[in-house]
Amino acid sequence: MSFRERLQSWRYNLVPDHLVGEILTKRWTDNAIPFLALVVTLATFGSIIPGFFKLTSLQESTRQLGEFSMVVTGMTVVMLGGGIDLSVGSIFALSCFSAVYVFFILEQSIWLALAASLAAGLVFGAINGYLVGYLRLRAFLTTLVTFIFGRALFDILVTTYAADVQLSTATSDVLDFIGDSTFWGLSVSVWLAIILAIVTHIALTRSRPGWHVLAVGGSRRSAHNAGIRVRRTVFMTYVFSGFCASIGGFLIACRLSGAGPGTGLNLEIMALTAAVVGGVSLGGGRGSVIKGLMGAIIVLTMTNGLIRMGYGTGTNQMVLGIMLAMAVTIDIRWLKNRHKVLNEVYVAPVYLKMGATQSAAPGSGTPYELDNRLSAADHIGLGELEGPEDVILDRDDHLYCGTRHGEIVRFFAPDYVKSEVFAHIGGFPLGLAFDKSGNLISCVGAMGLYSVSPDREVKRLSAETSRSWTSIVDDARLRDPNDCDVAPDGRIYFTDSTKRYDAHDWALDSIENRATGRLLVYDPKDGSTKTLLDSYRYTNGVCMAHDGKSLFFAESWACRVHRYWLEGPKAGTAECVIRDMPGYPDNINRASDGNYWMAWLGMRTPSFDLSLRHPDMRKRMTRRLPQDEWLFPNINTGGVVKFNEKGGIVEAMGDLTGGAHPMVTSMREHKGFLFVGGILNNRIGRYKISGADPNWTSPASYWGAKP
């Protein structure tokens, strides 16, 4: 390795470039920005203002926060539904006055005052909802009009009844408790805000009406086409916003025991800024109540902090305007360009220098020399199949295979002409294996490990494994389960080819060539799935050794086969038994003579081997060229190889004509025949093996003779 290549190896293999793309794909990254802004805001004002975090200061601030959070929660729901509510300040103020008027002037009970406050909020919310939802008026202009009308009405009422409120002698222990008392260190308003936030969050994420709100906010036309009552959903978001603002108005009435010209002033701007700064999209359908609350804390801390530092109202308004403009710009630009950024950074190739290999060309004289025997194979299901990646036969000689349409097809013995859909799983059934009870086990791409009983009952066995908390990559979900086999004790060993890409993105994984494949085991006794081995380049075929004490598995992009020991002094360890092959290994299965069959899905080429030593070139290729011009591994030519327990190559065969089986992903020996499958094929091959045991079957090899 030259000095330049050594530098490339250090640069691309040691620097985790892929983590940037992984982080940007996570949902929590949308929460990370407002959370960091919250931490910075609290830390800044906490260090500048003396006594900022004192208990008395916090209690007063949290009372305001409880009232403000109520309004922000309502605004968040409206925005998630694709709308905007500029009238929340007026509703807040009118609800406050309604409570004050009923309690102090009419001298009615505090509960009647609460009812009056709620009535004011619900009426205005219903008006907004009817105009925007049912009459389909512009939300911005409509709520601006109701804001102006509501504010004017409030100013008239306050001017008219201000003296009567001041002269009132009405008192209530309940009012004093709501306005001034604390419970477990927090004010009543904060507890109510927390309860409302939790209930709203659950409703949005776990209930049908909540899903409808998000669907409408994401796309009203699509929501309508899906049968969602869009107008009613929009109407209810504004009613809910009015309800939240009325609760906030009632709480401030209890705290201040009155209402003045400044009540709710500029509250709509503050609430809107809080929601947007927290990460709630103005376009609708994206955000959460938690984000809105984070924004509420940021905005309230900012405004109160500036006031305590001696800055006036004008400065506060200017800061809010700057925050709103920045948040809107980030929201719009990020939403528009996120996929472009991901396309630029997600694929992060690494350096790999492949070892020299022997030739597989005809006449080369090497153990890997391919001949043309597979071209003579008979075909089964020609034109009826699409993508039989793996094939397997049962005790009754019936043949099974998966298709890219999500079905497992069964061909009936002895001529394999008649067929039926044995089971519909969905996804893409890949590796197949029978357990002792006759259940058909299948790895299903992007879905997990499944079982189909003899009476065709489909059951999901596993879709995830234990999460490695030290890894940014989400390695809990099974993204590309590929092949499986069953041990004598019933445990199912299977491969997950890559943790970063789904099955249909195998080409991206080959170009990146990062070691993210793994070997896993599913235990039917307790239903657990565990990762046994990690950090392999596209783990693929897996096969139990004849004695059941070890297994073989393929590492496709590295052109290697490994042996993992289940018992004995090497238990729990793996060793490479075949390396630097000229072909990319796929499924592995037992042979009748005590050896093992291995499929080659494609052949190495000098051009792709060279590209693996130039990760910067592969990175530029994925960013600048259309996908049909990328340099891929050659999967147009493959074959079948037989190897022994020690990894020695016994024989190799192929289809040099390319007419029937140029690419091979699986093969299964059964009663003297080799059944051949291919993920890009439209048939299954049936080849007569010279000298093979005509009575040997795989089910008998695993589970003994048929009872």
TrEMBL record:
Bilayer topology term: Multi-pass membrane protein
Record-linked Pfam families: BPD_transp_2, SSL_N, Str_synth
Superkingdom of the organism of origin: Bacteria
InterPro entries on file: 6-blade_b-propeller_TolB-like, ABC_transp_permease, Strictosidine_synth_cons-reg
UniProt KW Transmembrane keyword: yes
Domain Strictosidine synthase conserved region stretches: 482-568
Record carries keyword RNA-binding: no
Subcellular location: Cell membrane
Alphabetical UniProt keywords: Cell membrane, Membrane, Transmembrane, Transmembrane helix
Primary localization: membrane
Membrane-crossing residue ranges in chain numbering: 32-53, 74-104, 110-132, 139-163, 183-204, 234-253, 265-285, 317-335
PANTHER family assigned: ABC TRANSPORTER PERMEASE PROTEIN YPHD-RELATED-RELATED (PTHR32196), GALACTOFURANOSE TRANSPORTER PERMEASE PROTEIN YTFT (PTHR32196:SF19)
Identification of the protein by name: ABC transporter permease
Naturally occurring in which organism (per UniProt): Mesorhizobium newzealandense
